[in-house]
Amino acid sequence: MKIAISYPPLESPKGVPLLSQNRQFQWFNAPTYIYPVIPATAATLLQREGHAVVWDDAVAEGKSFADWERSIIDSDVEIVAMESKTPVIKKHWRIIRHLKERKPSLVTVLMGDHPTALPHESMENCPADYLITGGDYDFSLLALCNHLADRSKPMPKGVFYRDGSRIADTGAFAQTGDLAQLPWIDRDLTKWQLYAYKNGNYKYTPGTYTMAGRDCWWRKDGGCTFCSWTVIYPQFQKRTPDDLLNEVQMLVEKYGIREIFDDTGTFPCGAFLQEFCEGMIARGLNRRVTIGCNMKPGILKPKDYALMGRANFRFILFGVESGVDETLLRLNKGNTVQDIRDAMKWAKEGGLEPHVTCMVGYPWESLADAKKTIALTKDLFQRGYIDTLQATICIPYAGTRLWKECLENDWLLTRDYDDFDMRKQVMKSECTTEHVRQFARELYWSFLSLPFIFNKLKKIRTLDDVTYLFRAAIQLIGHVLDFRKSQA
Ligand code: SF4
User: What stretches of 334-472 adopt beta strand conformation (E)?
Assistant: First the structure.
């Protein structure tokens, strides 16, 4: 079968959609293109099984909608599969309606966290032929395409489909795929260069993404209440350190990759981390490539950060979320504000460059609480413990525990999914959209203090440092623009 794995153009005055491989959707004025690791693995698996695959990221390729639509309608593509999230689900429904009107024989498949949470809603609101639930939609898409090519093969678990006018399904999804059996992503098939340069996580380009695990090992009581990825991956699975090291080595030697961001929800710790770091050092990869990852405060000790520094980890992303212990508890983050302070200090002392994400607008927080979060990030920044940050509005995605709390407590201000894009408040809160915008702008501008600029300029050694600073400045301006009133 011929399958297009597509990200259709989503034209919007709000900017470029940060949809692929993203746990929290945003429109960005300064374009960032994240490697869609799971769909890229799907493409790799499908091609390996003999299907013809079109890697069709029209967002990263900057195609117009008309050009993209023509490329699908006029081609011999038989199946189009699309990942979707809450803030763009209505757009994807419209696109599927449009495609089916123009080419009724085209088989359309929807997948992602929002379709997983509310599959009937999507099947009722658009004529999608199939909807895949669960996070392992690379394994599921392969099994579905195998079934469509040969109807004697079973449909995978967790698929919704049409049986005449009835919406039928194959039962609850199961994480049956084995990461140890997964091939490395075919970087040529999935046009790796599209994602190698325009990404604020990279200091050194070309850069790329890997994923050591799916998705986050923070599981206690279901993980963080606002996170949809623990819902679509109920069990954590990881590759071996050796397999990851071999892939890193291949990326360096074959593609000249200089920086890799591993996008596992939280990078594996303990023996995995130690073995991976020691392998980076023993193979001399620490002199050839820089590594970045997501990490949780409250887990690693100073010696772990020091080892990561020696292994050439650089960018380390911490989901700080709040500067209030009560909120961290309610979000089930599993760490305290003091853990956050310690982690940033130790990571910095280990030679890493911490990036933090924080959120405001929780229904239970007062304005004074939100100000504490802003004060914490400012303080970390001024102490030189963090290098970059991202401030957003907390969004309750469908299927998460926070979403359920919203329904139980009547916290939602709107059910219009277009509003769930972090540009405005969608939950009742003392902290209004205008407060959030003001805080975000304040945070971003606080980066521009004279001591900070002086400190950064003092550290410039190479051309990479200059270009990184330049790109960081563009990103910063982009983020300030993201929070303009006219962008809501
Ligand atoms: S730490 Fe929390 S927010 Fe981050 S990936 Fe894990 S569960 Fe999700």
Answer: 353-360, 388-393
**What is the CB < 6 Å shell around ligand 1?**
216, 218, 223-224, 227, 229-230, 265-266, 296, 319
Distances (CA, A) of 293 to 92, 183, 199, 202, 245: 30, 21, 14, 11, 14
Out of 21, 113, 214, 216, mutate this one to test ligand 1's pocket (max ligand atoms within 8 Å of CB): namely 216
Residue located nearest, by CA, to atom 6 of ligand 1: 216
Indicate the top mutation candidate among 22, 211, 218 to test ligand 1's pocket, ranked by most ligand atoms within 8 A of CB: 218
Determine the length of the chain. 488
Could you tell me how many helices (H) and strands (E) the chain has, helices first? 17, 17
* CATH label of the domain that carries residue 394: 3.80.30.20
pLDDT tens digits, one per residue of 187-207:
999 999 999 998 888 999 999
* Segments forming the whole domain that contains residue 378: 200-487
Q: Is 34 found in the same domain as 163? A: yes
Q: How far is ligand 1, taken at its centre, from the CA of residue 222, in Å?
A: 10
pLDDT digits (tens, 9 = 90+) for 422-465: 888 999 988 888 888 888 777 777 666 666 666 666 777 777 77
Q: Which domain-ending residue is among 119, 151, 169?
A: 169
Sheet of 388-393: strands edge to edge?
Answer: 207-210, 259-262, 290-295, 313-321, 353-360, 388-393
What residues contact residue 272 under an 8 Å CB cut-off, 6+ apart?
A: 212, 238, 241
User: 334 vs 135, 218, 319, 372, CA distance in Å?
Assistant: 23, 8, 12, 19
Residues 251 and 291 occupy one common structural domain: yes
| Site to substitute for ligand 1 among 37, 238, 266, most atoms within 8 A of C-beta | 266
Same domain, 381 and 334: yes
pTM of the predicted protein model: 0.91
Reduce the DSSP state of residue 430 to 3 states and report it. Answer: coil
In a domain, 458, yes or no: yes
Using CA positions, which residue lies closest to atom 4 of ligand 1?
A: 265
Residue 252 sits in the same domain as residue 338: yes
Distance 40 CA to ligand 1 centre (A): 22
Residues 290 and 412 in one domain: yes
